[in-house]
Amino acid sequence: MNPSAHSYPMASLYVGDLHPDVTEAMLYEKFSPAGPILSVRVCRDMITRRSLGYAYVNFQQPVDAERALDTMNFHVIKGKPVRIMWSQRDPSLRKSGVGNIFIKNLDKSIDNKALYDTFSALGNILSCKVACDENGSKGYGFVHFETQEAAEKAIEKMNGMLLNDRKVFVGRFKSRKEREAELGARAKEFTNVYIKNFGEDMDDEHLKDLFGKFGPALSVKVMTDESGKSKGFGFVSFERHEDAQKAVDEMNGKELNGKQIYVGQAQKKVERQMELKRKFEQMKQDRITRYQGVNLYVKNLDDGIDDERLRKEFSLFGTITSAKVIMEGGRSKGFGFVCFSSPEEATKAVTEMNGRIVATNPLLKPAVDEMFPEGTGPYVDLDEAGGSTRFLMDLTANEKAVHADFCNEFDDDDIE
């Protein structure tokens, strides 16, 4: 395999699926037999400093990095097999779909290594992952080949094959946008109708009589309990979309035996999840837009500063809609948020308050972390003589920083 052929960092490896307690020193000790190492970095949350479960190991020579990749992949560190691949931080390349395949209906026993061993004979693999949750494998995974030709060969050879006595599906990986577009197109042409909020006396024949006037139905079903009583909802599957749409338009909200019934498009679980997710993302974006430029992140707070004191210190600069010191176990974590009613007020607060001494308890000098790379953000160190606490602020939206796992070139949400 030639890493430079794909513009990967010359000798940089991504190491994922790390145990939370794995440190840089452990990784250095593990990988140094492969060759001289320039640096090791475990990625951590910028506030809590907890491991995010992945790291980067940078070798001096590409040949040493390749040796580590070939000989150490899936080795166990602190009880967990680690997943190694070439570091590729360009999201457009990671998510392009070129060389990526999707495998589903996997047996629970198939892990990352088993999937890698199964598909490695078909071409060089850049990354390989079985999707998991707290209960283990979710039954599907991804393989990213070095070339599109290898991916197509894998689809041709492996689709429909038995793997641990289960017939697996192997196909081209589709991005979330593609999946949503396909589901959206199918949703517009729906033929299945969901009806709810009718009484226990409803049966299949009665439901068919009610909806048969809109067009030919392939099936009609009232859902019942173990005693045969209606559970108050059912489904009608029409031959044509136009008839299903007409039934929804005319019957939704109508009264039936004194009850207002609901009639709408019948959605699969994945379609409902995607619709809810779209609504949630829109609400999240609206919230970010609403708070953009008015919310301050305040760092380096004294332990004695609570919500009320924080609000009081900033109230001179405008109308405060919220002030919150983040606590854990009843003690301040040393940072909080102040939200103003306008960007002008927030900007004025930053200008006036950044670096101001508000308490005199001696504290350690704070490290400038990734949130404020040197020269890119306003920060003031602690007073060297008295050790007094000063504010360290950032004008930002009140959204917790989210670190994307660089290995996750695959968006596996909402996959059927």
Automatic annotation (TrEMBL):
Cite the SUPFAM superfamilies for this sequence: RNA-binding domain, RBD
Say yes or no: keyword Magnesium present: no
Q: Record's Pfam families?
A: MYEOV2, RRM_1
Any one cellular-component term (Gene Ontology):
COP9 signalosome
What InterPro entries does this protein's entry cite?
CSN9_metazoa, Nucleotide-bd_a/b_plait_sf, PABP_1234, PABP_RRM1, RBD_domain_sf, RRM2_I_PABPs, RRM_dom, RRM_euk-type
Keyword list (alphabetical) reads:
Repeat, RNA-binding, Signalosome
Record-linked CDD domains: RRM1_I_PABPs (cd12378), RRM2_I_PABPs (cd12379), RRM3_I_PABPs (cd12380), RRM4_I_PABPs (cd12381)
Q: Name one GO molecular function term.
A: RNA binding
State the superkingdom.
Answer: Eukaryota
Q: Which residues form the RRM domain?
A: 11-89, 99-175, 191-268, 294-363
NCBIfam families listed in its UniProt record: PABP-1234
Q: Which family does it belong to?
A: Belongs to the polyadenylate-binding protein type-1 family.
The protein's name in its UniProt record? COP9 signalosome complex subunit 9
Where does this protein come from, organism-wise?
Camelus dromedarius (Dromedary)
**What is the phylogenetic placement of the source species in the record?**
Eukaryota, Metazoa, Chordata, Craniata, Vertebrata
